Amino acid sequence: MQTRNTILFTLLAILCLALFAVDMMVGSVGITASDVWAALTGNNCDPIKAKIIIDIRLIKALMAILSGAALSVSGLQMQTLFRNPLAGPYVLGVSSGASLGVAIFILGAPLLGIAGSGMLSTLGIAGAAWIGAAAILTAVAAVSRRIKDIMVILILGMMIGSAVSAIVQIMQYMSNEESLKSFVVWTMGSLGDVTTSQLRLVAPAIAAGLIIAIAVIKPMNLLLLGEPYARTMGLNIARTRGLILLSTTLLAGTITAFCGPIGFIGLAMPHLSRMLLRDADHRKLMPAAALIGAVSMLMCDILSKIFTLPINTITALLGIPIVIWVVVKNKNIA
To answer: What is the mean pLDDT of residues 298-316?
Structure first.
């Protein structure tokens, strides 16, 4: 089993590096592997191609890795915390909460006079997404403590998400044309709108979320056995729940803020990790989920550029078959 896992992780790492290189080669301008290598190593390269690689495609490929890992790990944490195989940032309304925060900021920023004020705007978008995501997560977590039926929690999460989406639609209806256009483009999901200065905020936020996720690996393994047993083992349930919610807020909220609401990655990839590893140990599941999430987002980004489609359409086509498989496998879940 150990040898099998080592081979699996090695193959995933190699696949991630290969897709990372391919992602920088694919696009409207043809770029070869030698061009990519020359640009990244500072060797002789056509200045125009070097600019495209460094300023556009490198940032986009890095965002694909960060977003895939962040959404997949946050989905894994939510499925463990809520003991619900259908939990995920998109399904439980976390992405909707982040969207509401971003909508309030984007549609209200012109009124505050900070619509185009660089770093202040970036911090505003991130902060609004974090607050929105945290609010929805806290509400769902509070409900889950009183209601033990996982399907009821799932339905309530979807209803909360729908209610938030309705509020967002009302705000869209009342907003001016320029703000509305910016928000609609944002909702389509994109990895290419992140700038270098924004990446300096995104990367540390994702790193912090992943560090917290790693810190709660052992408590998450205990939660698999149920909260009563975890308490008898001395686990501080409230502290663990708070850390998981903080990690998920940073991971899902940050990605939603800068890339839009990307669906199905957080829901589907943890299940794909379990299927490949055949193990429920989070010490193995978490790095596997992060790698598989990164690989899947790189693949989706490549396909979205080839077929000129929004990233959300590709993630849906990739994730829906996995979700259907989970539902069929757990048909007696209720």
So the answer is: 91
Q: Which amino acid is at 257?
A: A
What's the predicted TM-score (pTM) here?
Answer: 0.89
pLDDT tens, residue by residue, 160-192: 888 888 888 888 888 777 777 777 777 777 888
Query: For residue range 254-285, what is the model confidence (pLDDT) as tens digits?
Result: 999 889 888 889 999 999 999 999 889 999 99
What angle is formed at CA 320 by the lines to CA 319 and CA 324, rounded to 5 degrees?
125
Output the six-digit token pair for 19. 């897709």
Residue type, 21: A
Q: How far is CA 40 from CA 13, 45, 191, 301, 305, in A?
A: 19, 10, 20, 20, 21
CA distance 296 to 300: 6
Please enumerate in sequence order all residues whose Cβ is within 8 A of that of 174, keeping only pairs 6 or more positions apart, or say none: none
Question: Which is nearest to 67 in space by CA: 298, 324, 272?
Answer: 298
| Measured distance CA(214)–CA(284) in Å, rounded | 11
- Residues 61 and 74: their CA atoms lie apart, in Å, by 20
Query: What CA–CA distance (Å, rounded) separates 318 from 309?
Result: 14
Residue 165 and residue 210: Cα distance in Å, rounded?
28
CA–CA dist 294, 12 (Å, integer): 10
